[in-house]
What we know:
The protein has 15 helices and two strands. The protein is mostly helical. It has a single domain, classed as Orthogonal Bundle (Farnesyl Diphosphate Synthase).
Amino acid sequence: MSHDFQTWSFAIQQQMELALGGVLPPSDHLPQRLHAAMRYAVLGGGKRVRPLLVFAAGELVGAPAERLQYAAAAVELIHAYSLVHDDLPCMDDDVLRRGKPTVHVEFDEATALLAGDALQTAAFEVLAGHALCDDAADQVRMLKLLATASGAAGMAGGQAIDLASVGLPLSLPQLEHMHILKTGALIRASVLLGSYCGTPLAAGQRERLDRFAKLVGLAFQVVDDILDVEADSATLGKTAGKDAAHDKPTYVSLLGLKEAKQRAAELEAEALACLDGFGEAARRLRELAHFIVHRAF
Ligand code: GRG
């Protein structure tokens, strides 16, 4: 990771901490326990990869930082909600997230369920509540994009397939389909939302950016599967080794570690090729693709 990329990403992470703190309800307002759980789930942790993708795509189209910060906050709120619900006993039943006890452990199950619900709706409140595009019709497209990426045709649908797949011998295409929905859809949405906040792209450019986003979303998941095997819980801030313990099909269980790493490298190369022709404006997107594939946590 170059020093310059580190400085850029740190500045955005700081900006996002403030922005997210500002859009979340204060924990001294009623209902205090719900508000405290929402803030606990969102603030003070996470890599903020999705906000970074929003900002990087925004750079491609010369988008103002204030617009990007709200689009990024909306995606991060959806992501945080998905983690809270994923950790519940009825789903992945986990006790550690972002290096802290999960929300239902720190609070209680009902509060965690409600905090996830409220984070999800807060995301749309933020996305609808600020002028993010010159053309209002584009902002409606942004709302639909995030809704589709989060719902049955995206993340929630992927989670349903994931829950139904435990112990089953999935084929590689079936595994990829599940991850394209579960993890890929929100990562793709992050890139596209950022690109809506500035000068509109030509149709061909939008298609290439979309392909980049899909490939990076898949690469993110391949690396997530590798890290689940290779990294420890302290580094990840979440329980490591869970996939194998739960007999979950993963890229590593299907391909083996060596081939999974090769697949991640291929996806990175294919993603970078999609940015050919965008020049220096796509620099942060290239750096992020590299970070996503080569990260250690
Ligand atoms: C509950 C509807 C619903 C969906 C849950 C996102 C998800 C779907 C489940 C999380 C389980 C998981 C570990 C998925 C693998 C990829 C992933 C989303 C990892 C966590 O994202 P990071 O690494 O987390 O960006 P941080 O904490 O850095 O934000």
